[in-house]
Amino acid sequence: MAKVLVVGAGIFGTMHAYFALKAGHEVTLVERDPKPLSASVRNFGMIAVGGRAAGDELKVALRARELWGELAQQHSELTFRPSGSILVATSDNHLAVIEKVAQYPDASDRGWKALDRKQVMEMNPGIRGERVTGGLYCSQDAVVEPDRVLGEIRSIMHENPRFEYLPGHDVVSVDETSDGVRLAIRGGKKVSGDIAFVVPGADHSSLFGEHLDSEPLRRVFLQMARLENPGVTLTTSIANFDSLRFYPGYRGEPIDELEPVRPLVQEMVMQLLLQQRVDGTLTMGDTHVYEEPFPHEMREDCYDLLLDEAESILGTRPNITTRWQGIYSQNTADLICVRKKVTQKIMLVTGPGGRGNTLSPAIAETSMKEMFNV
């Protein structure tokens, strides 16, 4: 068995550490910050299988969903909820589109089912908007708690004496040596091992920037918010109708025939996603900006539009309690991710887009197979 070093303790790095440990290796997980602070904790926690592109992406998402289920079954402390999602229609025309989408050839693989208004409200009593006409249910979708799941998985790994976690260790270089690999930590510390996975997230320059420069990668800026507890339980994740335009799994003639989107939705590439946290509050988003330099200010008109959409679905308008922005790494070539061997002993993995929770277990599983030729 090898000593595996993983640089970056977001969801991708954490899953690489988990699967390396599961395979019997000794694992050291290294994190630059005192605790992970980037995209892995600034998201909805959604494991969104239903909207994945047909073909390889859907296959990987289904495998990842299976692995999440296995992990939760083995470790009851993991706050994994296989609660599904409802993409909500607020007009008869939109419901007609959903009914056509629900007839796609791979609909059963995704767990899709078209619902009328009564069925939506029976499945999720928190959806009470007067304009709601129905929705698309996806049974394969699930959710974790983004501010908890990394710590929960690390706690699982800490039960194994072969696991070590080094937060607050800024890796400045990763080098192959004659007998393995070596990390140089800011301040002079060295960490040695046999194999290294470098999982840099949206930092495309600090480590192996010269390799990432030639890859089809970009960074994406988004803004999100936390809403107060609406006083009702939302039993599923929620998306608005604009999500049909955003996710590749819905592509097809019904979507091609849709009316143009509203100007702000088009400008900011917006959709409404709502996810209730275990404390009852709601995570709401999101917007997408693809061209750098990114803005340093967050736009209130975007929040107003998202709140309007939330109110049309929930029948109530919760107040915003906190706002934040995030940046994630996305590949632009319809790849599952960018996975590159820098040397025979060092592998770079990044660029999943906004699919970290959705795909990370299966991507990490594949990384292990490719690195160890199994």
From TrEMBL:
Domain called FAD dependent oxidoreductase: residue spans: 3-365
Superkingdom: Bacteria
Keyword Disulfide bond annotated: no
Cofactors demanded by this protein: FAD
Parts forming coiled coils: none
Pfam families linked to this entry: DAO
Keyword vocabulary terms for this entry: Flavoprotein, Oxidoreductase
GO molecular function: oxidoreductase activity
Gene Ontology cellular component annotations, sorted alphabetically: cytoplasm
Keyword Lipid biosynthesis: no
Transmembrane stretches, start-end: none
Protein family per UniProt: Belongs to the DadA oxidoreductase family.
Protein's name according to its UniProt entry: FAD-dependent oxidoreductase
Organism: Aquiluna borgnonia
